[in-house]
Write a structure and sequence with these properties.
- This protein has 167 residues and is mainly alpha-helical.
- The protein folds into 2 domains: 1-83, no CATH class; 85-167.
- Helix content is 81%, strand content 0%.
- The protein contains 7 helices and no strands.
- α3 packs antiparallel against α4 and α4 (87-108) runs antiparallel to α5.
- The chain is flat and about 60 Å long.
Length: 167
C-alpha cells in the first residue's frame, strides 16, 4: 500500500511534464525554458506538500517549501514582477526561504522547538542583507548596536527549554 502511494507522485509529475513538453512540440503553446522552470519548481514543491499529507514525512514539507518558494522567486523575477537580481545580489532571498522552511517545519511539528533557532538566524540575516542590497537598511550599523539582543534571545530560549524539561 505504501509503495503505491510513493510511486503516485513521481508518476503524476512525469505526466504533467510530458504533457507540457508534448504541447510545446505540437506548437499548441510555446514554452520557453526561462518561463517554464519556475513553474516546474512550484509544481515539485506542491507535490512534496502532497507527499507530506500522504506519508507525514516532515522532510517533504521542508524541501517542498524551499523548492516552491524558490520557484515563486524565479517566476516573479523572470516575469519582471520584481527587479532582475543577479545571484550575487539575490542570495539573501534564499536565506529567507530557508528561514521560512524551518518555520513551516515548526508549524507541522510544533513540539520541535529547536527548528526555531535556525529559522530566526536565517530570517534575520537574510532580511538584513536583503534590505542592505535594496539600500533600505545598513545591517552593519544595526548589528554593531543591537548584537547583545541575540544573547538575550538565546538566554531566554535556554531558560524556557529548562522549564519545559522539568515538566
Amino acid at each position: 500500500m505504501n509503495n503505491s502511494k510513493t510511486s503516485l507522485l513521481p508518476g503524476i509529475l512525469l505526466i504533467i511534464i510530458g504533457s507540457l513538453l508534448l504541447i510545446h512540440k505540437l506548437n499548441i503553446f510555446y514554452f520557453d525554458w526561462q518561463q517554464t522552470y519556475p513553474i516546474l519548481f512550484i509544481l515539485i514543491g506542491i507535490m512534496l506538500f502532497v507527499s507530506y499529507f500522504m506519508n507525514r514525512n516532515t522532510n517533504s514539507v521542508f524541501w517542498g517549501t524551499i523548492i516552491a518558494l524558490a520557484g515563486v522567486f524565479f517566476f516573479l523575477r523572470n516575469y519582471h514582477v520584481i527587479d532582475y537580481y543577479y545571484m550575487s545580489e539575490a542570495w539573501p532571498v534564499f536565506m529567507i526561504i530557508l528561514g521560512i522552511a524551518f518555520l513551516v517545519l515548526f508549524v507541522v511539528k510544533p513540539q520541535d522547538w529547536g527548528v526555531l533557532i535556525p529559522a530566526g538566524i536565517f530570517l534575520v540575516i537574510g532580511t538584513s542583507f536583503l534590505l542592505r542590497n535594496l539600500h533600505l537598511w545598513y545591517a552593519r550599523d544595526i548589528i554593531q548596536r543591537y548584537w547583545p539582543l541575540l544573547l538575550i534571545i538565546i538566554g531566554a530560549g535556554v531558560i524556557l527549554s529548562s522549564f519545559k524539561k522539568e515538566k
